[in-house]
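Contributing new records

If you add data, match the layout below exactly. Sequence lines come first and carry their own label; structure lines follow with theirs. Keep one chain per record. Anything else will be rejected by the validation script.
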Amino acid sequence: MERALDAKIRFLLGHQPVEIADVDPTATVLEWLRGPAGRCGTKEGCAEGDCGACTVVLAEPDAQGGLAYRSVNSCIQFVGTLDGTQLLTVEDLRADGALHPVQRAMVDAHGSQCGFCTPGFVMSLFALYRQYGGPLPPSRETLDRALGGNLCRCTGYRPILEASARMFDTPRPDIFDDREAATLAALAKLARATGLAYQNRFFAPRSLAELSDILARHPGARILAGGTDLGLEATKAHRTLDTLVYLGRVGELGTIERTATHLVLGAAATWSAAIGAIVATWPALDEMFARFAGPPIRNAGTVGGNIANASPVGDGPPVFLALDAELELFGPQGTRRTNLSDFFLDYRKTALKPGEIVARVRLPLPKPTQTLAAYKVSKRLDDDISAVCAAFALEVADGKIVAARAAFGGMAAIPKRAAACEAALLGQSWSRETALAAGAALGGDFAPIGDMRASAAYRRKVAENLVLRFWLESETDTRVRAVSYA
């Protein structure tokens, strides 16, 4: 690694190289943009990744030799994570006095009212414009999903959606295609052979060996993956985060592989990358994961972070519990495996030992006899936290249920399998009576609390009804279409 006193955070701001040596590594990208960088087009709305007003785009080299663009929430992205990337804000889209096709479409469709949210919408649309590669214009569903992380307080969604379709009337190439070779060359100059050590407080190793060495020297360091939860400790709780170790540059942790028996997800793989592989393997999960946060969160948040964070309302763990996931944990003593069912111990407490991290998630491939469904219930359709999340996986042979896994989020202090519900299913025929009995058995599994998202009684009734819904839908589709609703 570079010596800590010499290291600087290096990236492209637009097309200009930038070096940072004197900014707190836990400062957010939004703070830096609106402060030292003097770029005030990016707005602060919620400071927790919930509204999209602060959306910016990061570009990095992809496996095909081009650039991959992803929208992120700058309000919870730490400056240190920019190292080696190109940061694009709304100021970068206009070139030689001409609006970018995304901006022109917003103007022509009258897509801006008060204007506060407009830069965030523009950047989310820009990311779609750059990444979409279909032969035909995107569908309305694709456009809706691309804007799932952006809120308009003026309720001006109709003209914004019109603009999102209109922008494809102007075909590529655009100025970013014209500059792609120069951008790739500039990013190549910034690339590091070993990891970043900045101010002896922010470390971004590039290998598991480097990571192990850093954790040995800094046993009290906080692990930073996507930062979609840890970022709120800085912006909302105003806590001091002394030492951070960022996993986003550790190559071994970002892989996604399908073996003969498992889908293996690297813990640092973003949800945007992982969801494609998950849905390709289990198509029934498409709608569920379409509602997993919004694109800027999915583009930053990681598979491992969603698990290690141990939130009782995370949407990934219930699905992984139903799929009988196994974890690979990496630490000072090497690698060990544990079933996800044994990982969550108590509220925000896990089976990780000091210095350990979640390295990979191993999901057994589906069996022909497997019936699967997942459900998300929340107040808002898009970009919202679940009141109840449920996932079910059954195996039926000779008319009897021979294996059953039912898992819930939002019902306890941890994501948890429902043992009593599963016992009520095993050995029974898959029928309405069995579903009703299994739903009633949930009373032995959970004693949920009431909070701002739902009352305890509501959660109990919803969970019970989701078991029945699972059966009702399986009557017409043996693979069960995953249904999620607000």
